[in-house]
Amino acid sequence: STFALTGFLIPTIIDTLEAKGYHYEDIYPEDVIYRGYGGVDCVEAGGPPAGAGCGGYVVGETVKLLKELNAFDEYDVILFDVLGDVVCGGFAAPLNLAPIYCVIVTD
């Protein structure tokens, strides 16, 4: 969660998309990107309730929106904190965008 960096629960990409009727052109960076501790900009993808859908779909929609907003061009480093214990491959989608990446795993 981004709560540790922002100090509050930020709106998720999915909630924002739903509120705007999935009209990507009506969403601006300030609607989904929030400045956190130390100047770290944060985005919260959100997702379906546990056991009720594919979180990978949410990752795909998040990546699509961030591309639309040109967010990937604005930063030198982008970190994705994703679940690693799922069967859906969508969580790995952001890895396709980077010429270089580092995967960190923990127990």
Concise structural overview:
The chain has 107 residues and is mainly alpha-helical. 27% of the residues lie in helices and 4% in strands. The chain has helices at 3-6, 13-19, 29-32, 55-68; strands spanning 34-35, 41-42.
Please describe the topology of this protein.
Elements: H1 3-6, H2 13-19, H3 29-32, E1 34-35, E2 41-42, H4 55-68
Antiparallel strand pairs: 1-2
Protein name: ChlL/BchL
Keywords: ATP-binding, Iron, Iron-sulfur, Metal-binding, Nucleotide-binding
GO molecular function, one term: ATP binding
What does this structure look like?
The structure is a single chain. With 107 residues, the chain is mainly alpha-helical. It has one domain. It is built from four helices and two strands, in the order αααββα. Strands 1-2 form a two-stranded antiparallel sheet. A hairpin with a 5-residue loop joins strand 1 and strand 2. It is globular, with a radius of gyration of 14 Å.
The Rg value, from CA coordinates, equals 14 Å
Biggest pleated sheet? 2 strands, antiparallel
Question: Count of helical segments?
Answer: 4
- Main β-sheet, spatial strand arrangement: 1-2
- Model regions low in confidence, pLDDT < 50 over at least 5 residues: none
SS strand fraction: under 5%
Q: How many E-type strands?
A: 2
- The shape is globular
Determine the fraction of residues in helical runs and give it as a percent range: 25-40%
Count of discrete domains: 1
